[in-house]
Write a structure and sequence with these properties.
The protein is an alpha/beta fold. About 40% of the residues lie in helices and about 10% in strands. The mean pLDDT is about 80.
Length: about 210
């Protein structure tokens, strides 16, 4: 298990987060407002209790996801682990990929902090992955819903470390400062923002070539 969420957040890709939200939406747990870029835990329908959602059809998603708005028993955790292991085997067989321990992971997303703490304790006590009897089971990670929201917000920030948000029109997903500083102005991958700025500057220079009038 990864206890440090910052480490976990570094490992997931933006498309992984999109899968978390998409699974939650399909289960009726999560709502997302694209216009405000806001996600929220809205409800927990009975049909979602204990439901494990498998990998995507192309097999490149590393997590099987279960949402929980209550603490899970040891038996429930064992059932989820068994199901995730069987799903991993079936996906590997269906797509012809080798079945590797590194590619079968169960992610339990808890609505409440205290439930996440309880689950981590149970998993560490009863499902240690360094033991021979657990070697065939998927790795299990537990995070809070607030961690998912944190991951979403971190993915919106530029890598420069200044806490600035990326701008949607930047080709390289930079914040405005980094976009102006680093984007190319010529070539096939030229940044549209930089091109626009260059055109405005050239137009200004052309109009005032004879000096101010």
């Amino acid at each position: 298990m990864i206890e440090d969420f910052d480490e976990f957040c570094e490992k997931i890709r933006p498309e992984d987060f999109d899968e978390f939200v998409d699974v939650g939406k399909k289960l009726g747990i999560v709502s997302y407002r694209p216009d405000m870029d806001v996600i929220s835990w809205t409800d927990f329908p009975h049909k979602a209790d204990g439901t494990i959602k498998p990998q995507t059809a192309n097999g490149d998603f590393w997590y099987y996801i279960e949402f929980a708005d209550h603490s899970l028993s040891v038996d429930h955790i064992q059932t989820s682990i068994d199901e995730a292991r069987e799903l991993g085997i079936k996906v590997a067989d269906a797509n012809g990929y080798p079945w590797e321990n590194s590619r079968k992971r169960l992610l339990i997303i808890c609505r409440h902090h205290e439930h996440a703490v309880d689950l981590r304790t149970k998993i560490n006590d009863f499902f240690r992955h360094d033991s021979p009897e657990q070697s065939d089971n998927p790795l299990v990670f537990v995070i809070r819903w607030s961690d998912v929201v944190t991951a979403h917000n971190k993915k919106k920030l530029c890598y420069c470390g200044n806490g600035k948000e990326k701008i949607k029109s930047c080709r390289m997903n930079n914040c405005e400062d980094c976009c102006w500083e680093k984007c190319m102005t010529y070539g096939r991958l030229a940044c549209p923002n930089a091109n626009e700025a260059l055109q405005r500057r050239e137009d200004f220079n052309h109009r005032h070539a004879g000096g101010w009038k």
